[in-house]
């Protein structure tokens, strides 16, 4: 059986990243008897300024993209409907504030040493989109750590240090240099990049082609 390594470049503050991973899970389940997958998550920050004041998400997006609040609200509602169909909790998506995710990415790296990266990432998605919690806040992050059964006090110690900071910065630099300017991005076997939250069937076709040694660019 062929094995595909998938490096996922994403941000916790990116709703399409959560949707993209849920669609990826569907595709991987469909290919269970054909392909083995290994997953590793890599950091990307949509809001890299740690000193920026948190702002209501609809206001922030409206200003960023030069579109009306009503347009942004409609776009967010569409994503909420997509997420619901995928079993994701985006209940409070429109109530959240902008947030820096650097510390959350550090904890994803830490959780990876325990084989729990994906669980950690999904817990942060749930906190941000499902409960509109501040994923830059240490207490929120530690609660997510404890929710997946990891040690909260150890996580708090990490947050009070610079541990995993270099690893996160190295991730960001590497994938920016590789041309990743938007997320999610899925790097397959360190050769092929699939950009965006593709539908499961598109992923299935791409994975089969890559597993058969054919190049594909979705």
Automatic annotation (TrEMBL):
GO terms for molecular function: oxidoreductase activity. Residues 5-206 form the DSBA-like thioredoxin domain. This is DSBA-like thioredoxin domain-containing protein.
